[in-house]
Amino acid sequence: MNTELPKQHYRVDPHARFRVLDGEGIFVLQKAGEVLVINQVGAFIVEQLQAERTLDDVVTAVTERYSVDRAQAQTDAGSLIEALLEAGALAAS
Amino acid sequence: MSFSNTIKRSWNENRLVSVLLELTYACNLDCSFCYNDLALEGQELSLAQYRALLDELASLSVLNLTLSGGEPLAHPHFYEIGGYARKLGFVVRLKSNGHALKESVARRIQNEVDPFIVEVSLHGAIAATHDRQTRVVGSFDRLVSNVRAMKSLGMRLKANSVLTLWNETEVEAMFALCDELGVPLQIDAEVKPRDDGDASPLEIAASASGLANYSKALALQLKGDETVASVVASTQREARVGTEKHCGAGSNHLSVDPYGNVLPCVQWRAPVGNLHERGITEIWAESITLRDVRQTTIAARRMLEDLGEASLVANFCPGAAHTHSGDPLAMYPAAQQRIEPGRARVRLPVL
Ligand SMILES: C[S@@+](CC[C@H](N)C(=O)[O-])C[C@H]1O[C@@H](n2cnc3c(N)ncnc32)[C@H](O)[C@@H]1O
Ligand code: SF4
């Protein structure tokens, strides 16, 4: 995984829908007809991305909210985003 | 983490997940058995009110938004409402009779509304039957041609049908037609009274032999030792796990009629508030009638459990019960009929 944090923005893919229900993040992948559920931390990360924060800012927000160290937050956020990009839930913008 | 657990929790915690909007009762077809109450009066919601409603629903984190009617496309602001729903990130479902969905219209819907699914209504396997129910000559041919066009655009489609006295001998043929069109078909075996309680739609309710033929046709689609009754019973049994409610009416879903009346469910026509008077957030949090509805779904569950295992196949709906008699807990003929053979068919564990 790339550990460099690009000043990249991500958004919910135009073919996906996202809501936070009961703390969990729900993606509906319209093309595939699939639902993808992510945990509370994941939902927080996606909400931050929706607020047009860069990955760097998101990692900072995660460390503040969940008191995890920066390296861990960076690895977790990076892998989540990679997986969501691959699933067609997020798109780079 | 599973989506079905999230949905079940939404019943218990009164979290609004799905809303159905009946945008208008205007329609380009004229089904004789249609449940819409065309005599209902009121002030239609304006486009500004629909926008405000959708804003509130998005703030409440509502996921699913169904646009129905009447014929939703007959609403003068259909595209504005649908487009705004898309912008706010709802999963939009469109329930249409399909009559207006020619290729250019479907393309526009795809571009501007981007629905997750379009559900169309099929009333028979041949033009004579379908057109007899819609009372519009040519509606069958148009539907079939529109479905083919939408399929070629790559849209996700589903066909819904209601079993009636007029189409009950065409069940296998309807499944075959939908197979050929590449569209899943769901048949509702129950004709409902009109929303004002008028029972005249039931004049074309399926006969006993029609219902038996329908069960046989469904059974052909099942595997092994499953029967329709056993599948319905196990779905119901599963639905009862982790909640004390019979259904999510008023707990995780609501409907809104064209005049702003907020209903617990499209079938449960007892308003719990009106959007001309209060916003949806306030109704959701404070309506005493809505609280009563939620209690009633708990009472319905207890009532059915008292009837024993056979009630699992009743497919009882408190909304339908309310429309039949005004009492959401009173058994009504169609549910009762399903229970009777159910008593004989659902096998109980001996020890
Ligand atoms: C009222 S329509 C509205 C959407 C659209 N106009 C259509 O026909 O699909 C929704 C669904 O209800 C079904 N329906 C209408 N009247 C009914 C009744 N009395 N009992 C059961 N289903 C009914 C229709 O066939 C349709 O599938
Ligand atoms: S097409 Fe739908 S709304 Fe129109 S009359 Fe038929 S069932 Fe009713």
Which runs of chain B of at least 5 residues are low in confidence (pLDDT < 50)? 343-351
- CATH domain class of chain A: Alpha Beta
Please provide the count of β strands of chain A: 5
Give the C-alpha Rg of chain B: 20 Å
Strand order of the largest sheet of chain A: 2-3-4
| Strand-residue proportion of chain B | 5-15%
By secondary-structure content and strand pairing, the structural class of chain A works out as: alpha+beta
Backbone CA Rg of chain A = 12 Å
* Global morphology of chain A: globular
* Weakly predicted, low-confidence segments of chain A: none
Helix content range of chain B: 40-55%
The assigned structural class of chain B equals: alpha/beta
The chain pair forming the largest interface, with residue counts per chain, is: A-B, 18 and 18 residues
Oligomeric state of the chains in view: heterodimer
Index terms:
heterodimer, A: 93 residues, alpha+beta, Outer Surface Protein A, domain 3, 3-stranded antiparallel β-sheet, two-stranded antiparallel ribbon, 3 helices, globular, B: 351 residues, alpha/beta, 9-stranded mixed β-sheet, 13 helices, 9 strands, 43% helix, disordered C terminus, binds S-adenosylmethionine, binds iron/sulfur cluster
Could you characterize the architecture of this molecule?
The complex is a heterodimer of chains A (93) and B (351). With 93 residues, chain A is an alpha+beta fold. Chain A has a single domain (10-92), classed as Alpha-Beta Complex (Outer Surface Protein A, domain 3), CATH 3.90.930. Chain A has helices at 40-50, 55-66, 70-87; strands at 10-12, 16-21, 24-29, 34-38, 90-92. In chain A, the strands form two sheets. In chain A, strands 2-3-4 form a three-stranded antiparallel beta sheet, covered by helices on one side. Chain A has a two-stranded antiparallel ribbon with strand order 1-5. In chain A, strand 3 and strand 4 form a beta hairpin. The model of chain A has no long low-confidence stretch (mean pLDDT 90). Chain B is of the alpha/beta class and 351 residues long. Chain B is globular, with a radius of gyration of 20 Å. Helices cover 43% and strands 11% of the residues of chain B. In chain B, helix 2 runs parallel beside helix 3 (78-87). Chain B has a nine-stranded mixed beta sheet, covered by helices on one side. The two termini of chain B are 34 Å apart. Chain B is built from 13 helices and nine strands. Chain B has helices at residues 3-13, 47-59, 78-87, 103-112, 127-134, 139-152, 171-181, 208-220, 228-240, 280-286, 288-306, 318-325, 333-345, and strands at 18-22, 64-68, 91-96, 117-121, 157-162, 185-188, 253-256, 261-263, 273-274. Chain A binds chain B through residues 12, 14-15, 17-22, 24, 26, 28, 30, 33, 35, 37-39, and chain B through 1-3, 6, 9-10, 13, 15, 17, 61-63, 89-91, 114, 116, 156. Iron/sulfur cluster (SF4) is lined by residues 27, 29-31, 34, 36, 69-71, 97 of chain B.
